[in-house]
Automatic annotation (TrEMBL):
<dbReference type="Pfam" id="PF05013">
    <property type="entry name" value="FGase"/>
</dbReference>
<dbReference type="InterPro" id="IPR007709">
    <property type="entry name" value="N-FG_amidohydro"/>
</dbReference>
<protein>
    <recommendedName>
        <fullName>N-formylglutamate amidohydrolase</fullName>
    </recommendedName>
</protein>
Length: 276
């Protein structure tokens, strides 16, 4: 894996090169093994939290991990195009607009012992900005090459905090054109519901049951590109014990193995329907 600047990463994308990189500030990774009409993203996969913020932070490493989406990159790592965040969303949240990306409070609790200096915020927001420069270049290139792109936007959520039964998989669709894409969204929901998981886990899949797809990543792509469908796909944290911080690797591996075939099959169908 190379370490490259944002400018060099974008140049490689524009030249249709195959590569695997980490950004020069270690804020995100991008792998392109082949140019295909779909991409996978795991923007909340990261847990890095830069040291100069530690002493001022009121949240523990576990509290940060609890709200992150661990292993979501692993679940899609076998696909040809994968972009993933390395930093914790507690430093800056890639699924929030720039003006809201650096939290003052997080999940009902003050985040900082004293207000974060502007210089600290600026350093974090620069990483947010760089990520979206690369996202724009990536989606623009895929659309130009193929005419249509599907993005599988992978997240996870803490199911134990809900006081009702919640699905294994949730698709958030409120910010996409459901008149145009409703049929292929339903096909993706159906495919997820058929996934076989170990440990007698169910694979119930619903649309807009727990989350509604209101994140900035989906919004940014949808507003900038008319021929890209972003599928905000949440898995409940059945793949770990969210209260003990224990990952269940057999469940993560099962999800990854199922998505190896289900994502490209679905993406191929979507492409046939919507390619220009």
């Amino acid at each position: 894996m190379q370490k490259l600047s944002v400018e060099d990463i974008i140049a490689k994308i524009k030249n249709l090169e195959y590569f695997e990189v980490v950004a020069s500030d270690y804020s995100f990774t991008l792998k392109i093994e082949n140019y295909v009409p779909y991409a996978c993203a795991a923007i909340h996969n990261g847990h890095q939290f830069r040291k100069e913020l530690w002493d001022n932070c009121l949240h523990t490493a576990y509290e940060r991990w609890y709200e992150e989406d661990p292993e979501t990159k692993t679940m899609v790592q076998s696909h040809p195009i994968v972009i993933a965040g390395c930093d914790s969303r507690f430093e800056y949240d890639l699924n929030r607009a720039p003006e809201d990306a650096v939290f003052e409070t997080a999940w009902g609790k003050d985040l900082w012992k004293s207000p974060l200096p502007e210089a600290m915020k600026t350093k974090s927001l620069q990483k947010h900005q760089n990520f979206y420069k690369v996202v724009h270049a990536l989606i623009e290139t895929i659309e130009e090459k193929f005419g249509f792109c599907t993005v599988y936007d992978m997240h996870s959520y803490n199911w134990k905090r809900w006081d009702r039964e919640v699905p294994t998989w949730n698709l958030g669709t409120t910010q996409i054109d459901n008149d145009r894409f409703g049929k292929v969204v339903e096909l993706w929901r159906q495919s997820l519901s058929e996934i076989q998981l170990p440990n007698d886990l169910n694979s119930i899949a619903k649309i807009n049951d727990t989350f509604y797809g209101k994140g900035y990543f989906l919004k940014f792509i949808t507003q900038n590109f008319k021929n890209t469908l972003v599928l905000a796909t949440e898995i409940s944290k059945v793949y770990c014990n969210e209260h003990e911080r224990v990952i269940f690797p057999e469940v993560v591996a099962a999800v990854e193995n199922e998505l190896k075939t289900r994502i490209p099959e679905h993406a191929a169908y979507v492409y046939e329907v919507f390619k220009s």
